[in-house]
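Thanks for the sequence, V.! I ran Sulfotransferase right away. Repeating your input here for the record:
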Amino acid sequence: MEEKPLSYEESIRRAGDALKRFPLIDVQGVPLMSTIAANWKSISEFSPDPSDLLIATYPKAGTTWTQEIVDLLLHNGDAEMCKRAPTTVRIPFLEIVSPPPIPSGLDLLKQMKPPRVIKTHLPIQLVPKGFWENKCKVIYVARNAKDNAVSYFHFDRMNLTQPEPGPWDGYVDKFMKGQLGWGSWYDHVKGYWKERKERNILYIFYEDMKENPHKEIERIMRYMDLSVPDDVIERIVQLTSFNVMKDNPMANYSYMPKPVFDQSISVFMRKGEVGDWVNHFTPAQSQVFDEDYAKQMKDVNIPFRFSI
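Predicted structure:
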C-alpha cells in the first residue's frame, strides 16, 4: 500500500531532533543560515511565474500579518478558506531549507500551481532575478529599526534554529553591524526603497498598517488588481487584528513543536505594537543607536516613525 505523504506539521514533528541552531554563512556579503547557504544555487535559480506575488520583509517586520491580509484578499475575506493550512504551507518561504522530512520552500512551491504567493526575507540584491525579469508584483513591508530589533531579539530567543542571540545589549550591537540572519536592516530597507519605482514594488510601513489598517489593506488590494467590497475590507481588518491572529492556529505558528519554536521562552506573536522599543532600550543605548542610525541612513529619506 502506498504510504500517505506526511503533513507539514507531522514532518516538522518528525524532524525535531535534527533541528538545531544553524550557524550563519556569508552569501555575497549577507549572513544566511547555513542550510540556505548550502542550497544557494537552487534558490537563486528559482524561476517564478509572472503571476506570482512576492512578499518581502526584513525578519519580524510584519511578514505573517501581510501574508494573512493577502490570502484573505485573494479569498474575498473567507476566514475558513484561509485556515486550510498553516501560513508556511499557504505562502511558502522561498529560501528556507530544513532537514528532511520537512519540505523546503522550493519543495512546497513545486507542488503549487501559479499564481502563488511567496515569502522572502532576502535583501533585494539576492532576490532571484526571475522575479524582476518576469515583472512579478512585490509587496515590501518595513518596520522602524528599534521595534524591529526588539522583535527580532525575542524571536531569536525562541527560534531554536537561529543563532543564540545572547544578551540584549550585545544583540543591539549585532543589529547595528548587520551581523544577524539576512544581514543589515539598513541595507535591506534602503535596497527595496531605492528600487521601488523602477521595479514596481509596493512599499508599505508597519506603522501605517497599525495606524490605519483599512487604508493600507485597500492599497494592497489595488496593487493586486483586485476589487473587494468595503465590508469585506473591514472584515479583513478584524480578522488580521493582532488579537484575532494571535488566536488563529493557522497563523500563530503554534503548530511548530518546541525543538523549533519554544514559545515558553517568547510567543511568536508577542506584542505587535509600535513603540515597544522604549521598554528595552536604555537612554544610553538609544543615543548610541540614534547616532549610528543617522550615519547609516544619511543617503536616504525613508519616513520611518518610531511612535504613532
